[in-house]
């Protein structure tokens, strides 16, 4: 299966988070948010502002290990058994809480979080087909084979003008 890439800019992320907040408003009121770290932290902050929620808890679930730890090809990540390294204690069973993440991909992390917070509403910015059944609400569906490059994963780089590249080839 060929992998394609989709770059999400800061502006796009902010627009999508505000759109998600707008869709969540009629489902409230909510007591607070549980952000899935790390990707859900920034969307949770934006949504918290838009919905005037100041109680923001976090949960940290590790399901991807660096390749050097798993013995796979250097630089790649491999999905392993998910483990909760920080629980969202303030959220109880999830009653009145929103779970916010940037992306639901395979659904592995979402399933772990749902088991811990069965009464929460799960919302994310982007969803892939395998993860869709584990979220209540999302903004954009992306193909399963698409790798999303979030703004915190990329850095702007200088690219020389085409004329310089053409001159160097002569």
From TrEMBL:
One of this protein's Pfam families, by short name? Pribosyltran
- One GO molecular function term? hypoxanthine phosphoribosyltransferase activity
Keyword Acetylation belongs to the record: no
**Which EC class does it fall in?**
transferase
Membrane-spanning parts: none
Keyword terms: Cell membrane, Glycosyltransferase, Magnesium, Membrane, Metal-binding, Purine salvage, Transferase
Protein's name according to its UniProt entry: Xanthine phosphoribosyltransferase
Q: Which organism is it from?
A: Lichenicola cladoniae
* Organism ancestry: Bacteria, Pseudomonadati, Pseudomonadota, Alphaproteobacteria, Acetobacterales
Q: Which gene encodes it?
A: gpt
